[in-house]
Amino acid sequence: MYKEVDFFEYSKDILKQIERGAFLTVKHGEKVNTMTIGWGSLGSIWHKPVFIVLVRGSRYTYEIVEKAEDFTVSFPLKGQLKEELIGCGTKSGRDIDKFKEFNLKTREGISVKTPIIDDCDFHFECKIIYKQKMDENKLSDEWIKKTFYNNGDYHYVYYGEILKSYIKE
Ligand SMILES: Cc1cc2nc3c(=O)[nH]c(=O)nc-3n(C[C@H](O)[C@H](O)[C@H](O)COP(=O)(O)O)c2cc1C
Fold first, then answer.
1. Span from the CA of 129 to the centroid of ligand 1 (angstroms)
2. Strand runs (DSSP E) across 10-143, as ranges?
3. CB–CB of 46/154 below 8 Å?
4. Which atom of ligand 1 is nearest to the CA of 20?
5. What pTM did the predictor assign?
6. Which of 77, 99, 116, 134 registers the highest number of CB atoms within 10 A of its CB?
7. Rounded to whole angstroms, how far apart are CA atoms 87 and 73?
8. Per residue in 115-153, pLDDT tens?
């Protein structure tokens, strides 16, 4: 059973989980992939509820999401899928089918083309309303530059309008 919920009620759980890992799933045409994300931001922009994800240009996920209209983010809030989070955060969809390899069941999105990871408890369906590549010249913190972007693999930032948020009961 899936139930739509007010995500603000789950915001604490979601933001706690994001550092531990969530699944960012993307789809364009026949290509579908999921990867682990550890960074993300939940907020209100342009009077819309928005979830922001950051994807490095080197990821297979980037190749897909750059052409996509939407994405989903699935959170295992009960501490499950730890191995799968590691697997999807270390292996690339260029080399393997992660859904098969890690036995991840998907379910069709309700309002987006991208599926969700069914074994998770909480899901966002997001429509991409803005995207930008990080501009290294606008990064003022040298520590961030050295620590995260020494090899020039900058993030692309995707702003997803949250169309649906729901839990699995
Ligand atoms: C806990 C964790 C969090 C991660 N967070 C991010 C993230 O926010 N953005 C990103 O680009 N990569 C992140 N990664 C790395 C990607 O998940 C990893 O490179 C993955 O293999 C990319 O898969 P793909 O090539 O199929 O897109 C994270 C990895 C782990 C283990």
1. 22
2. 22-28, 31-37, 41-45, 48-56, 70-75, 106-107, 116-117, 122-133
3. no
4. 1
5. 0.98
6. 116
7. 16
8. 999 999 999 999 999 999 999 999 999 999 999 999 999
Q: Which residue has the least CA distance to atom 30 on ligand 1?
A: 89
The reply to whether ligand 1 has any atom less than 6 angstroms from the CB of 56 is: yes
Print the domain residue range for 97: 2-168
Give the whole-angstrom CA distance, residue 69 versus residue 60.
16
Q: Is the CB of 35 under 6 A from ligand 1?
A: yes
Torsional sign, CA 60, 61, 62, 67: positive
Domains: count for the chain: 1
64 lines ligand 1 (CB under 6 A): no
Atom of ligand 1 nearest to the CA of 21: 1
CATH number at residue 18: 2.30.110.10
54-109 per-position pLDDT tens digit: 999 999 999 999 999 999 999 999 999 999 999 999 999 999 999 999 999 999 99
CA distance 137 to 23: 30
Contacts of 121 (CB under 8 A, 6+ apart): 75, 76, 77, 78, 167, 168
